[in-house]
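quick q for whoever's on today - can somebody do inverse folding on this one?? i tried earlier but teh output was garbage lol. tokens:
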């Protein structure tokens, strides 16, 4: 696994969807339907660009004109049962509900919609459920993040992420490692889901 510091200039970072497309350019030989990288926007400046922390299974390409890899290193995650670690996670905690207007999908079923969890207690429960039986949260703080707006073709959307941080204790090392590799929750293409451990 690799950890990289990446800079994406403003024209490619002003929309969350185009930012994701720019990061794809760092992996030119990967199929479009296999995304094996996660990222988090660490800093974004209007008119300037975005600083990204990215985790990937393969080393990103360094010779891309539109995206700059400023640093990268090989990263191995060796976990043991009972280990206590600090964690940071920017995530998109949601719940799925049936469409209030009763609109139906192509199969004639009522559509399901994802809606953000707004109350902190619900957000905490969301994360506890994802870590159930693989890690214990000893400390946790939840703080709101700036909403992410994106446009993909004619479709516009909004994601309401939050930042979780604190201390966890590992119960199942392999499962925690899998969670770090896969990420947590939806909106990974928009910079959510990367679990950082220290």
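ok took a stab at it. sequence:
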């Amino acid at each position: 696994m690799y950890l990289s510091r990446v800079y994406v200039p403003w024209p490619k970072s002003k929309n969350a969807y185009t930012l994701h497309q720019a990061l794809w350019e760092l992996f030119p030989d990967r199929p479009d339907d296999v995304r094996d990288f996660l990222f988090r926007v660490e800093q974004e400046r209007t008119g300037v660009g975005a600083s990204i922390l990215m985790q990937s299974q393969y080393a990103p390409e360094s010779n891309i004109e539109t995206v700059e890899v400023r640093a990268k290193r090989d990263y191995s995650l060796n976990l043991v049962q009972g280990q206590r670690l600090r964690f940071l996670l920017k995530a998109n905690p949601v719940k799925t509900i049936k469409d209030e207007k009763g609109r139906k999908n192509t199969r004639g079923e009522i559509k399901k919609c994802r809606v953000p969890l707004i109350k902190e207690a619900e957000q905490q429960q969301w994360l506890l459920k994802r870590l159930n039986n693989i890690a214990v949260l000893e400390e946790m703080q939840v703080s709101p993040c700036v909403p992410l707006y994106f446009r993909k073709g004619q479709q516009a959307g909004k994601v309401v992420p939050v930042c979780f941080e604190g201390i966890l204790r590992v119960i199942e090392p392999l499962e925690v490692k899998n969670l770090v590799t896969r990420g947590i929750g939806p909106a990974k293409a928009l910079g959510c889901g990367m679990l950082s451990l220290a």
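fwiw DSSP finds four helices and twelve strands in the chain. also The chain has a mean pLDDT of 92. so keep that in mind when u check it
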